[in-house]
Amino acid sequence: MGANRSPNQAKAARVAREVMKSFDLGDLYGLISEHLDYPTDTERLYEAVDPRYSNLEKERFKLFHILENAVKTEGEKRALHEYSDNWVEQCSIREMGWFYLGYAAALRFFGNSPAIKLIEGGRKDEPKPVPLKSEFKL
């Protein structure tokens, strides 16, 4: 195993720690979001939470099309689409808020320093947890 070690491993580890200093919960949320296969993964997750999800979503689309066909003027159509865009933005904000809440709850139950072992070329000491920003401390 030692033969595969880079001679610059200590420097690389130091640079990686420096790069990650500004990494925060929003970055973690972004990484997880980018990793998901939308909409497949999210639909599977939502249906695991509540099997009615898919039917509720189909019903919402049907209702939106009924409303879209009911409005007559361009102003009414524009207002309906602005309402829809607003709703999507609100849902995104709520989703991120629930992610933050879940993270804070996990910290509350499991502590600020979960027992995660890092492989760093035979490092003997435990890594120090990244301090949480004040808005995430319980």
Q: Can you offer a commentary on this structure?
A:
It is a single chain. By secondary structure, the chain is mainly alpha-helical. It has one domain. 64% of the residues lie in helices and 0% in strands. It has 5 helices and no strands. It is elongated, with a radius of gyration of 23 Å. The two termini are 41 Å apart. About 7% of the residues have low confidence.
Brief summary of the model shown:
Helices cover 64% and strands 0% of the residues. The chain has 138 residues and is mainly α. The chain has one domain.
Question: What brief labels describe this structure?
Answer:
mainly alpha; 138 residues
Order of helices and strands: HHHHH
Mean pLDDT: 81
Number of strands: 0
Measured distance between first and last alpha carbons: 41 Å
- Name the assembly state: single chain
Tally of DSSP helical segments? 5
How are the secondary structure elements laid out?
Layout: H1 9-20, H2 25-35, H3 40-49, H4 53-70, H5 74-110
